[in-house]
Write a structure and sequence with these properties.
The complex is a heterodimer of chains A (356) and B (288). With 356 residues, chain A is mostly helical. Chain A is built from 15 helices and four strands. In chain A, the strands form two sheets. In chain A, strands 1-4 form a two-stranded antiparallel sheet. In chain A, a hairpin with a 2-residue loop joins strand 2 and strand 3. The chains are: A mainly alpha (356), B mainly alpha (288).
C-alpha cells in the first residue's frame, strides 16, 4: 500500500524527518550530549541514592513513564483510551496465571502476556476505533470496568478471584561477565523498569519521527482533513493502539513480578486518571511531554505521600486546572512561552549562505 | 418460576430503570446541547443523595421538600458550572472528558472528606406497600417509578411542546443556525445543562432510600447512563426511556438468578455487541 500521506505531505520540505543544516547538526550534537548525560545519570542513580526506597521510586518512575508514553501514542490522534489500564491488567494477570497455574518460565509468560495484551488492544480497537469520539471514550471505559469485573469474579481458580494472585516466581539473576545482579532487588527492579522505559522511549521517538507519526499528529488535528488526502485514520489509530498496548502489556507483566500480588482492584479508574494526568500535565504535543509529566507527577506523588487519598483530589484538580489554563501541558507552555521544542519553521529557505 | 418473586424483581427493576432514565436523559441533554460528555454527571446524583441523607435522614425535612430543594440546588449548580467551567469546552470532546474526569474526582474526594468512606442508609420516604394485582410492592419503589415517570414526562413535554424546548432542540441540532434565528444560545445552553444536572440530582434523592449512600456511588450511575445512551441511541429521548427501563428490568429480574457482577458484565458485552451490529442504538438516531 503506497503511503499517499508522505507523498502529499512531502511537497513541503519534511524537516521533521531529517534535520539538516548547520543548526540541525548543532541541535543533534546537543541532543546527543543530553542523552549521554541522561544515560549516565540514570545508570548511576542507584549507587548515589540515599536508600533503597528511593531506588524503588526510581523503578516506579520508569514504569509510569512507559505507561504515559503508551497512552500518549494514541492520545496524539485525539483518542483517549480509557481501557489502557485494563490492558495492563491483562498483561499482569496473564503473566501471573501462567506462572502460577502452569509454572511457565518468566520469559515465556512475559512473551505470551505481551501478545495477549496486543490482541486485546486490537480487539478493543476493532470495536471502538470506528466509532465516533464520544462512543470511543465510553466504550473503552466500559472495557475497563468489564475487565475488572472479569478478573475479580470469573475463573477464580486461575485468576484468584477477589483476593488476586500471588506470584512466587522470581526473576533470575542477571550475569554480565563478572557482574552479577539480583533482578529482584531494588537495583534490579530499577534496571528492568529503566530498560522497559528505554524501549518505550525508543518506540515513541521512532514513531514520532516516522511518516506514520506525522499521520498520527495530523489525525489529532482533523480526521476529515487527513482522510481527504487518503490516509486511513482507522489503520493508523489501530497501529498506535497496538503499539501502546504492547508496551502497556509489558509493563503489566513486569508489574506482576515486581509487586508479586496481582489484584484487580489495583487496575482501577484512579490509575487510569493518574496516567491521564501524566500526559495532560506534561503535554501531548511532543514525546518529552508524557515523560516529563510522568516524572513530575511520580515525584510529587512520593513527596505528598503523607496526604494519602487527598492526592487524588489533587490530581483531579490538576486535570481541571490544566485543561482550563494549560491545555497543552508543560510542553505546550515551553513551546509558546519559552520557545523550546518548537517544530522547525518550514517556511525558512533551505540554503543559507552563512558561516557554519 | 415464582410469580411474586418475578413481580418483585420487575418492580425493583422498573424503579431502578426510572432512575437510569433520569440520569441518562440528563447526560444526553448535556451532550445534545454542548456536544460534550460530562463524566462528572453521576456525581450530581451522588450529591443529591448525600443532601437527602442530611436533609431528610438527619434533619427530618419532608421528602417532597427535599426533592424540590435538591432540584433547585442542582439547577443552580448546573448554571454556575456551565457558565464558569463547561462552557469553555464546548465541542471539545476530549478536553471536556478529561476535565470532567478530574472534576468527578474532586467532587468525590471533597464529599468523602465531609461524609466519610462508609456508606450510610437513608430511611424510606414512604412506608408500607401497595397491592398490584396480587403482589405487594414497596411504596418507596412505587414513589420512584411514579416520580420518575412524572419528571420524564414533564421533561419530554417541555422539550417537545414548548417554545423554549423547541429552542433547545434547535441548538442541539445546529447551534449557529439557531443563533442566527435569534435564539439566545448561551442562555439556553446554560438552561439545558442545568436541567440535566437537576435531573441527576433529583434522581439521587429518589434513589437514596433504595440503596445506601456513599461518596463513590456516582460513577456507577455515570456508567449506567453511558450504557443506556449507547443502547438507546444518543439523540433519542424515546430510545433513552426504552433502554433505561429495559436495563432496569434486566437488572431487576436478572438479579434474581445471577449475581451483580455477571449482570454488569453481560450489560457491557451487550454494549459491545450493539456497537458492532447497530451503532446507532435501538432508536437508530445518529448523533449529529
Amino acid at each position: 500500500m503506497t503511503d499517499v500521506s508522505s507523498q502529499t505531505l512531502s511537497r513541503t520540505p519534511d524537516r521533521g524527518k531529517r534535520a539538516v543544516g548547520p543548526r540541525a547538526t548543532g541541535a543533534r550534537r546537543a541532543g546527543g550530549v543530553v542523552a549521554a548525560v541522561g544515560l549516565v545519570a540514570v545508570v548511576s542513580f542507584p549507587s548515589v541514592a540515599a536508600n533503597a526506597y528511593q531506588v524503588t521510586v526510581g523503578a516506579e518512575l520508569f514504569m509510569n513513564v512507559s505507561l504515559a508514553l503508551s497512552l500518549w501514542l494514541l492520545l496524539v490522534t485525539g483518542s483517549l483510551n480509557m481501557g489502557q489500564v485494563a490492558v495492563m491488567a491483562i498483561g499482569a494477570y496473564t503473566t501471573a496465571a501462567l506462572s502460577v497455574s502452569l509454572s511457565w518460565p518468566w520469559w515465556l509468560s512475559t512473551l505470551i502476556a505481551v501478545l495477549v495484551a496486543v490482541v486485546a488492544g486490537l480487539i478493543l480497537g476493532l470495536i471502538t476505533l470506528r466509532l465516533k469520539g464520544v462512543y470511543f471514550f465510553l466504550v473503552t471505559f466500559a472495557f475497563l470496568e468489564a475487565t475488572g469485573l472479569f478478573f475479580s469474579n470469573y475463573f477464580t481458580g486461575v485468576f484468584g478471584g477477589q483476593s488476586g494472585l500471588v506470584l512466587t516466581e522470581r526473576l533470575p539473576d542477571l550475569t554480565v561477565g563478572p557482574l552479577e545482579l539480583d533482578l529482584n532487588s531494588p537495583e534490579g527492579e530499577y534496571l528492568v523498569a529503566a530498560a522497559i522505559a528505554a524501549l518505550a522511549c525508543y518506540v515513541a521517538s521512532r514513531l514520532w519521527r516516522s511518516s506514520a507519526g506525522l499521520v498520527l499528529r495530523a489525525l489529532g488535528g482533523s480526521d476529515s482533513l487527513a482522510e481527504s488526502v487518503g490516509v486511513s485514520t482507522f489503520r493508523h489509530r489501530l497501529f498506535a493502539l497496538a503499539a501502546g498496548s504492547a508496551i502497556t502489556g509489558l509493563v503489566g507483566s513486569y508489574y506482576a513480578y515486581r509487586t508479586r500480588i496481582v489484584d484487580s482492584n489495583d487496575f482501577d479508574l484512579s490509575l487510569a486518571v493518574l496516567i491521564v494526568a501524566f500526559v495532560v500535565i506534561g503535554g501531548s504535543s511532543h514525546p518529552i511531554g508524557p515523560i516529563l509529566g510522568a516524572v513530575l507527577v511520580t515525584l510529587l506523588n512520593e513527596w505528598l505521600r503523607d496526604l494519602g487519598s487527598l492526592r487524588q483530589l489533587g490530581y483531579g484538580a490538576a486535570l481541571v486546572l490544566f485543561m482550563l489554563f494549560v491545555p497543552n501541558g508543560l510542553v505546550g507552555l515551553a513551546r509558546s512561552r519559552w520557545r523550546i521544542w518548537r517544530p522547525r519553521d518550514l517556511r525558512r529557505p533551505r540554503a543559507r549562505v552563512s558561516s557554519p | 418460576m415464582d410469580l411474586s418473586e418475578l413481580a418483585q424483581g420487575a418492580a425493583s427493576g422498573l424503579s431502578l430503570g426510572s432512575i437510569y432514565v433520569l440520569v441518562a436523559l440528563g447526560l444526553a441533554l448535556v451532550f445534545g446541547i454542548l456536544r460534550i460528555i460530562n463524566f462528572a454527571h453521576g456525581e450530581f446524583l451522588m450529591l443529591g443523595a448525600i443532601a437527602t441523607f442530611y436533609l431528610f435522614g438527619r434533619d427530618g425535612l419532608p421528602f417532597v421538600v427535599v426533592l424540590v430543594i435538591v432540584g433547585a440546588a442542582g439547577f443552580l449548580t448546573g448554571i454556575a458550572l456551565e457558565w464558569g467551567l463547561y462552557r469553555r469546552f464546548q465541542s471539545n470532546l476530549l478536553g471536556a472528558f478529561v476535565m470532567s474526569l478530574g472534576l468527578s474526582l474532586v467532587i468525590q474526594m471533597m464529599v468523602r472528606e465531609l461524609f466519610g468512606v462508609q456508606p450510610r442508609r437513608v430511611p424510606s420516604a414512604i412506608e408500607g406497600v401497595t397491592r398490584f394485582g396480587g403482589v405487594d410492592v414497596a411504596n418507596s419503589r412505587v414513589l420512584v417509578i411514579v416520580a420518575g415517570a412524572l419528571i420524564v414526562a414533564a421533561t419530554y413535554l417541555a422539550i417537545e411542546r414548548t417554545q423554549t424546548g423547541r429552542a433547545l432542540r434547535a441548538i442541539a441540532e445546529n447551534r449557529d443556525a439557531a443563533s442566527l434565528m435569534g435564539i439566545n444560545a448561551p442562555l439556553l445552553a446554560s438552561l439545558g445543562f442545568a436541567l440535566g444536572t437537576a435531573m441527576a440530582a433529583v434522581a439521587g434523592v429518589l434513589v437514596s432510600p433504595l440503596f445506601s449512600v456513599s461518596s463513590g456511588m456516582g460513577v456507577d450511575y455515570t456508567v449506567k447512563a453511558f450504557i443506556v445512551i449507547i443502547l438507546g441511541g444518543m439523540g433519542s429521548i424515546r430510545g433513552a426511556i426504552v433502554a433505561g427501563l429495559g436495563l432496569g428490568l434486566l437488572e431487576g429480574i436478572g438479579g434474581i438468578y445471577v449475581d451483580n457482577s455477571t449482570l454488569v458484565l453481560a450489560e457491557l458485552v451487550l454494549v459491545g455487541l450493539t456497537l458492532i451490529v447497530r451503532p446507532e442504538g435501538l432508536a437508530g438516531v445518529t448523533p449529529a
